[in-house]
Automatic annotation (TrEMBL):
Its EC number is 2.7.7.7. The record marks 5 as: Substrate discrimination. This is DNA polymerase IV. Monomer. InterPro entries: DNA/RNA_pol_sf, DNA_pol_Y-fam_lit_finger_sf, DNA_pol_Y-fam_little_finger, DNA_polymerase-Y, DNApol_IV, IMS_HHH_1, Rev_trsase/Diguanyl_cyclase, UmuC. Poorly processive, error-prone DNA polymerase involved in untargeted mutagenesis. Copies undamaged DNA at stalled replication forks, which arise in vivo from mismatched or misaligned primer ends. These misaligned primers can be extended by PolIV. Exhibits no 3'-5' exonuclease (proofreading) activity. May be involved in translesional synthesis, in conjunction with the beta clamp from PolIII. The active site is at residue 95. It is found in: Cytoplasm. Residues 1-176 form the UmuC domain. The lineage of its organism: Bacteria, Pseudomonadati, Pseudomonadota, Gammaproteobacteria, Lysobacterales.
Length: 357
């Protein structure tokens, strides 16, 4: 969906149409949930501090989020998807992968299916959506952004390598800023450059993930669309009214551990066979640096208090200066497995990309 939350607000309030709209609570601790395309022209982006958005676009209209309304529209859109295929993998309220190898409608191609879905969304919701049609998930994701808003981009198999060659290497899934900087020191800026390293070199640098990186550089990704994505993590987090030092987070960690534990129990009620043993502590510094620390145990702590104790202990693994202040803390439980294949794992440091050797 295009600028989903902001577009819903503009649809429902004609006075907002054509104006820069920022979906966010006002305040020093708030972040932008969504920005209309009119606001994006001024550099406003999702996850940006609301105060910065206000500085970039002083005449923007700030609208408080209304998530029940957005969820209702999301259900409506997914109903449209379901007319075409049962293989739907939601990523968020406004985005999903669809496998249309076989469809319920008998339309002749994936392109025709995408066109029909976009037309139905426009007619039934009054909103626009952009679609990417490609041989696999990661390519479809890139393609879906290519002609936003209200666009359709089709990437055929024989076009894949040429399409990827000039793209920044950071467009590949899993390549974060750390990996991008490391590759940049080797003169690797584009996907085409990355291919020149070869699989052996990438594996030497990144281990097994290097092999996947090599495949991605050639447009190869066999991950299927998963209609029932298993829960990967149950977590709770909170942003403080004022930045706090690390040793002042106990009360917040314990409160969030209780919420996370309650969520984990609900997950177990849905599927008693799935268990988790990894405790995750997430922190965001006053200057918006995000870090996580995690520990995989032989067995998950027996309750919320024990979970909180482990999470509090993970602060010892934070090696930032003692005077560092934090604006957010989160507590999570991850590493879900079925009881039949659960094994104790080594300690992990959570990250958005593989650890560097």
């Amino acid at each position: 969906m295009d600028a989903f939350y902001a577009s819903v607000e503009q649809r429902d309030d004609p006075g907002l149409r054509g104006r820069p709209v920022v979906v966010a609570w006002r305040g020093a601790r708030s972040v932008v949930c969504a920005a209309s395309y009119e606001a994006r022209k001024f550099g406003v982006r999702s996850a940006m501090p609301a105060l910065r958005a206000e500085r970039l676009c002083p005449h923007a209209v700030f609208v408080a989020p209304d998530f029940p309304r957005y969820k209702a529209v999301s259900r409506q859109v997914r109903g449209i998807f379901a007319r075409h295929t049962e293989l739907i993998e939601p990523l968020s309220l406004d985005e999903a992968y669809l496998d249309v190898t076989e469809t319920r409608t008998g339309l002749p191609s994936a392109t025709a299916t995408a066109e029909a879905i976009r037309a139905a969304i426009r007619e039934e919701t009054g909103l626009t959506a952009s679609a990417g049609v490609a041989p696999n998930k990661f390519l479809a994701k890139i393609a879906s952004d290519w002609r936003k808003p209200d666009g359709l981009f089709v990437l055929k198999p024989h076009q894949v390598e040429a399409f990827l060659t000039p793209l920044p290497v950071g467009r590949l899934p899993g390549v974060g800023k750390v990996t991008e900087r490391r590759l940049g020191k080797l003169g690797i800026a584009t996907v085409g450059d990355l291919r020149t390293l070869g699989q052996d070199r990438l594996e030497a640098m990144f281990g097994r993930w290097g092999a996947r990186l090599h495949r991605l550089s050639h447009g190869i990704d066999d991950n299927p669309v998963q209609p029932e994505r298993p829960t990967m993590q149950v977590s709770s987090e909170d942003t403080f009214p004022d930045d706090l030092p690390l040793d002042a987070l106990d009360t917040h960690i314990r409160r969030l551990a209780e919420k996370t534990w309650a969520g984990y129990q609900r997950e177990r009620e849905r599927d008693p066979q799935r268990i988790a043993r990894t405790v995750v502590l997430k922190l965001k510094t006053a200057d918006f640096r995000i870090l996580t620390r995690s520990l995989t145990l032989p067995a998950l702590p027996a309750g919320a208090q024990a979970l909180a104790a482990v999470a509090c202990g993970l602060r010892e693994r934070v090696d930032l200066p003692a005077d560092t202040l934090y604006r957010l803390v989160g507590v999570g439980i991850s590493g879900f497995t079925g009881t039949e294949d659960a094994v104790a794992q080594s300690d992990l440091f959570g990250a958005d990309e593989p650890p560097l050797p």
